User: Fold these one by one.
Assistant:
Number 1:
Amino acid sequence: MAKAGVLYVGTDNGLYIFSDPGGTGRWRLLPDVALANEQIIGLVAADSQSLVVATKQAFQRSDDGGRQWQEADAEDRMLFNFLNSQRVPVATVQGMGVWRYSEPPLSDCSLLAVLSGKQEVLLAVTADGKRMLRSDDGGKTWHDVSVTFQGRLSAFAPSSYHIDVVWAGTDTGQILRSDDRGRSWQHVGNVPHAVRCLAAVRVA
């Protein structure tokens, strides 16, 4: 039986939330915007209620799905060490990190995603944000992904609830989803500002 889901979208102007109450794949944008006027540069969601965000000014934590916020503690802040790294950022089911080696698996890339499973899949965005590539062999070979979007790809988020599902966002506010480990993509929705980070979780 499908479960309800929540997608948190960090943007250049606040945190937006998409909801799929019936688990039908019909995601809708909720009307309330959290942390309006704040640029969200990092986001980690443990579940549908508990999340931590990094803004340009502070680290904030919410335990009620983004309605109320408090200053994050030192342990929460450690989740955002990737922001101070010179290595290529990598999206995983645990949140954002950095590529495990000093050199990225693709020389001309600005962002990576690692999809866990029996066969690990890598997704990469080129430095100009205009192309997405996919690798089934740890980055030895890459293939262009056919995906239509406006602007530049700016964020990835493998879903914590299904190894085949991964999300992407653009600097024009488009939200994209793949249900087949990055092979094909569909447009799910839009937010009015550039997407900088994403987190997708199931409602318990």
Number 2:
Amino acid sequence: MQPPAGSQVSRVPAQRTPSEQLPPAPPTPAPQPRRRRLRTVLTVVGGVLALLLAGGVVTGFVLYNRAAAPDRSAPDVVVVNYLQAALVSRDPNRAKLFTCDGSVPALDEFNAQAVRREQELGVSFSINIEGVSVTKINSSSASVVAVIRRSASVDGIQQSLADAWQFDVQDRDGWRVCTGTKVR
């Protein structure tokens, strides 16, 4: 029973048992290192993956540039690449990558004649570049001779024509074909 409000009754504090008689306190729980460890592992794995991805992108870019860049490393190489682009692939934009001024008029006319002849005969020529040799060379210019062979089967008979060409090339940030003339 409780004393009435405002009375002067003294209250006796509850008696406590001596601390020796108390059961031992439960041990404090150890901190949770798993979350911190997991976060660290995920951060390291994420960083490694980001570095691998960045390395892959850079490697891909370098390899693509090497594959896509025209090879103008030597006079004979640039002539073969130019003839492949102009006559075999018939890609004038790619052919311009190997020239000094965008086109070689004599070879453009040769190619136009070949196309007209294919249409007249109703065949498709197979073009081969043969016997490529550098005849004169100095540090910034050279002369290259090449044989252009056109082959086709006309009325069941295999036929072939070969024309020798001379190309003058110059080293302008890589070798480039500047002129071309039919030799024979």
Number 3:
Amino acid sequence: MPRPVRDVTRWTWGALLVCGALGCSVEPQLAVTLDVDAGVDAGPAPATCASGIIWTEASGDTGASMAPGYACRSCHLRQAPSMAYSFMGTVFPALHEKDGCDARLAEPSRVKVEILDADGQVRLTLVPNAAGNFLSTTLQPSFPLPYRARVVGPDGASRVMATPQSNGDCNSCHTEQGTQGAPGRITLP
């Protein structure tokens, strides 16, 4: 008779480290489900697109709403260096949104991405558009790096990056699955 399969949930190390450093509670979307008895690794988290709207190059939108989730600054450095702003990225409603997914933020004007200097002082406040994209207006930061970022949601709740950074191409680490220690997308708190 086969043994019943049990599912258990464990938190990813990234979630534990980030939340341990910030003193926050671990969010359910950071959990990984493992089938312990079968020894199967959960693999990547399922990608979603809450809005159901995916940007494509064929759509023709080349303005501030283009390519949510893609590494903005890297592309701009190659294709439009005069618009490769020092800080660029996308805020999403969920941690594992697909590349190109239009975030359709409900209240983008009430969301802030604050760029903090090494002393924790707000040096720049960026507001995303409805697609979730945000960008600074200068090609070089006006203060010495490293920096950290804080996302402030419409209700005033906030989440701060735990690790100082020197690359302002936020989506280069905050990918669909996350790289370089990022747990996934930049999300609302």
Number 4:
Amino acid sequence: MSNETRPLTKTPWAEIDKRVRRVDEDRWISSRFAPASQRRALTALYALNYELVRVQEVVSEETLGLIRFQWWREAIAEIEAGKAPRGHDVCLAIAEEAAEGRLKPGALQKLVDGYQTAFTEQDRSKEPEVWVALTAANILIPVHNWAEEIRSVSAAYATVRRKAGHAFGPHVSPAPKPLRPAVAHFRLRKLYCEGKAPNPLSKRFSIMKAMNTGEV
């Protein structure tokens, strides 16, 4: 029996994890390869990302959308100020990981700003997919030299995933091993640009290969 103790948490991590798996399976599979201490931070990031993405999907009136973005902006600011998080499970998750230093509120605010811009301009190509990937990478390695590769490959992946293009995008050098849980899903662009709808098994096979080789 392990003597390791874990801090008590009110965050419903299992429910949040199930949600991310359902709505963002690509990133969820990649995140499974992250160390346990960093996996929750990735899960919290992707759960917030979903909340921001769905504004575009469920709100048609600009004023109502702006209210939602402002709600998240204020919720994150309160967490940064050390106030008790709002009663939303994603707020609880963000607060817990921010307290551990694994999530930076400033980076999350940039995520809100990016999705608001895409929403108000009704241009999904402006969604901050690149920033999501850079933030995820920063959780794993605060300092690395793969930012330009992330920017280029993330943009190509986002385009083919939402069926806005069919170009594979740039070929880049293998990703550093510690970064791979944040970027391995980019390898799925090969399947997406071929017009395929990859099933869970093919996704796992492709992402596992990316984890082993670093080729995304």
